[in-house]
Amino acid sequence: VNGDEKSIANIDPELIKQTLLNVIQNAFDAVKASGKVEINYFREYNNIVISVSDNGSGIPVENQSKIFDLYFTSKTDGNGLGLSISQKIISQHKGSIEFTSSNLGTTFKIILPIQ
To answer: 39 phi and psi, to 5 degrees?
Structure first.
């Protein structure tokens, strides 16, 4: 992950791709035309961390405890499956997905264990 350092995580590439697409699409949906979405990855302890940040208006406090609930959505054209499925996929990989959000934006961190 850093320079010459090798880190290996045992993942299903299609499932991780689906998770990343869900999280990145949410970030794009959260920003205006001049907004910013940033994707980073790094090693933290014995994990690979992928972070997706946006500078949108953030997730309202009243919705934060529900965003991983099946069928919960705040989008008019959403079905409420994306983050719920993403959380399940990451859990199946023995990892976790977490977020921080304020009126300055949201950051999702996908944390996957290194073998």
So the answer is: -120, 130
Residue pLDDT, tens place only, 52-107:
999 999 999 999 999 999 988 887 787 888 999 999 999 999 999 999 999 999 99
Q: How far apart are CA 98 and CA 82, in angstroms?
A: 14
In 3D space, the residue among 85, 64, 81 whose CA is nearest the CA of residue 72 turns out to be 81
Outline where 1-115 has alpha helix (H). 13-30, 61-64, 82-92
| Cα angle value 41/47/80 (rounded, 5°) | 70
Q: Which H or E run contains 14?
A: helix 13-30
Contact yes or no for 39/76 (Cβ under 8 A): no
67 contacts 18 by C-beta, under 8 angstroms: no
**What three-state secondary structure class fits 17?**
helix
